Amino acid sequence: MQRSKKLGSPPASSPCECVKPTLETGNILTEPIGYIESCFSAKNGTPRQPTICSLSRACLRIRKSVFNNPEHSVMGLEQFSHVWILFVFHKNGHLSCKAKVQPPRLNGTKTGIFSTRSPHRPNAIGLTLAKLDRVEGGTIYLSGIDMINGTPVLDIKPYIADYDSPQDLIYPLDELSLQEREQKLKDLPCSINMAGNNEQELRTEGFRPQSHSREGKHPADQIAKEKYLKEKDSTDVQHLLHKFKSTTADCNVETGVNQNSGRDVGQIGLHQSKECINNSLSMVEGDAVMQENSETQHHSIVGDAAPASCVASWVKDSPVTTLEVRFTPNAEMDLERFSLEDDTADASITSFKYFRSVKEAKCAIIAVLAADPRSVYRRKHCQDRLFYFSMDTAHITCWFGDGFAEVLRIKHTDTVENPVWQCSLQPASS
Length: 430
Ligand SMILES: C[S@@+](CC[C@H](N)C(=O)[O-])C[C@H]1O[C@@H](n2cnc3c(N)ncnc32)[C@H](O)[C@@H]1O
Known about the structure:
Blueprint: E1 34-38, E2 57-61, H1 70-73, E3 82-88, E4 100-101, E5 111-112, E6 125-136, E7 139-143, E8 152-158, H2 161-164, E9 169-170, H3 178-186, H4 196-205, E10 207-208, H5 219-231, H6 235-248, H7 257-268, H8 274-293, H9 313-316, E11 324-327, H10 329-336, H11 358-370, H12 376-381, E12 387-391, E13 394-401, E14 404-412
Parallel strand pairs: 11-14
Antiparallel strand pairs: 1-2, 1-8, 2-7, 3-6, 3-8, 4-5, 6-7, 9-10, 12-13, 13-14
């Protein structure tokens, strides 16, 4: 799509055909509320979604040109564990986009732009759910991000599980005709694997769960469900929930810290160290505790029920496999040099800006590579090429083999010429 093409209903235009930016037509002029300072300096190697690397950090200073007192604008935000960040893909390079794209997880197969999270979309707007680590004055500190340094941010909104994750559907029986119930059952996503008996029971009781992807599952969702289990007092609803649980066991709806964190563990790869996995787990638990403290439980009993959503099967069962990540002895030694105290790999004094230890940096590198950050083009046509990317002050050189990524060298970005653009033939666009 070319930018000049008009979209939908005609926008208000002036005699010279310029599109007037007005709220009513939806043609607004945006002003960034701030710019992301992130551990990723280029698109290459930047995670494709925030869930890939929980150790990726960033900060955002609210601009004084937007609010005289930036700290006023983030007042109360510290009560939330996660925030939505709306931003501009300012490094897309061009403003045109195609109606069909090839997301890396589909490894070359095309699908409609609006069924993907591709950066190349008509309005180049990105949406990331980030963990809010802390708020200091008019600055917010984030982790689990997928935005590069310098990304213009348009808005911040608190993540509120009750509002932002679909709730399951419990229909009052008398409000649904038999026909409506039949229709709702037909609407069930095909990926749901329901046992015959349960399906029958659901049919008769008008209860309709939808599958919930384990991969996309958020820790906060688990909290909503646990709260529901603790607080519910209606025996009818308990009965329904029991059916919901038994029915959805096949759909990965059953929860628990291990299952929630399965995403992190899976993506970190086969050779992930135990510490890395423990890190991921404790982060999931940390999220959960924070969310418990936030004021999000204002919904009715139905609203508090287990969350439900459904995603395209290619998102969960991508043909692109998780890679094993290895480090050569040279790369291991390179990494140790980032520690400024020779004998303590865990030293908090490092030459990193965002990572707090060498171990954290290693976990983050593993997480990024395990998810295979290569573009489809590169995966198919440049298999024997070296792959470069930067994270924090580390410039990483690696190569990919069958089912694995191997880190060859890790240099300080200060010692590398043009570390940003040196990356690859093709940008790892999504
Ligand atoms: C697939 S997009 C997803 C972003 C967001 N989570 C979303 O769903 O809208 C993430 C990728 O966008 C690219 N990216 C990040 N920040 C960008 C920016 N400011 N301009 C252009 N591309 C960017 C990186 O290559 C990253 O891997």
